[in-house]
Design brief:
The chain has 241 residues and is α/β, with parallel strands linked by helices. The chain folds into 2 domains: 3-103 and 204-225, Adenylosuccinate Synthetase, Chain A, domain 1 (3-Layer(aba) Sandwich); 104-199, Adenylosuccinate Synthetase, subunit A, domain 2 (Orthogonal Bundle), CATH 1.10.300. It is built from 7 helices and 10 strands. It has a 6-stranded parallel β-sheet with strand order 1-10-2-5-7-9, with helices on both faces. It has a two-stranded antiparallel sheet with strand order 3-4. A two-stranded parallel ribbon has the order 6-8. Strand 3 (41-45) and strand 4 (48-52) form a beta hairpin. Helix 5 packs across helix 6. The radius of gyration is 18 Å and the shape is globular.
């Protein structure tokens, strides 16, 4: 298969981004296939410094297609901020980036769950979370019942899905916080916010599974970038194109 996969052997900060950047010119497609908007990587090009968390560094190379695949848990606000920052500095994104409709979405309850679990359930020992909702979103992905995929935001029942998830999450988070603050989420405001995210990102959303399978069949050179060495754990075992 015409594919190269770059992963790490530790927890990060191993210069994987540098290796990916060096290999990109030998590939047609660069894929971010797991992880979320974590620390990311720094790219220096044309005398300018860019910090990326979600968008693959191939975005700076002409003729290279960038893909955020279904194994990523996606914070839409973070992705939009990153895209806006690139475009403001003259880096085109339209036509160079596609986002999987099967990527799972990070919501406000994931941030709260991250905070409460780190605060209440670790006996004061830090687990290393960045409080960005990534772990809790992966738990929902594996659990399925409360998971929301990117494509779900374009469905007619998206508002109802938000209400159903909040009804359950509210009870769960109240239990974690021992009901101290009565964790509350407003389904209507969250729906409106995420509907806006969905509209902004709609031109980028695609079936990346089909796209990448077709690319491999056409002998396109594909570079897969993983964020850390734990490539085949429960968070990524169902390898997602």
């Amino acid at each position: 298969m015409p594919g190269t996969c770059v992963i790490g052997l530790q927890w990060g900060d191993e210069a994987k981004g540098k290796v990916v950047d060096l290999l990109t010119e030998q590939h047609d497609i660069v894929v971010r296939y797991q992880g979320g908007a974590n620390a990311g990587h720094t790219v220096v090009t044309g005398g300018e410094t860019f910090k990326l968390s979600l968008v693959p560094s191939g975005i700076f190379r002409p003729g290279v297609q960038c893909v955020i695949a279904g194994g990523v848990v996606l914070n839409p606000a973070a992705l939009i901020d990153e895209i806006n920052a690139l475009e403001t500095r003259g880096v085109p994104v339209d036509g160079k980036l596609i986002v999987s409709d099967r990527a799972h979405v990070i919501f406000p309850w994931h941030f709260e769950e991250d905070r409460l679990l780190n605060q209440e359930c670790t006996s004061g020992e830090a687990i290393g979370t960045t409080m960005r909702g990534i772990g809790p979103c992966y738990r929902d992905k594996v659990g399925r019942s409360l998971a929301v995929r990117f494509g779900d935001m374009y469905r007619a029942d998206f508002a109802e899905k938000i209400e159903r998830v909040i009804a359950v999450k509210g009870r769960m988070l109240d239990g974690l916080s021992e009901g101290a603050n009565g964790v509350l989420f407003d389904p209507a405001s969250i729906y409106e916010e995420y509907r806006g995210f969905a509209e902004r990102l709609a031109p980028l959303v695609a079936d990346t599974t089909t796209y990448l399978l077709d690319a491999v069949e056409a002998d396109k050179r594909v570079l897969f970038r993983g964020p850390r060495g734990r490539c085949w754990t429960s968070t990524t075992a169902p390898f997602r194109l």
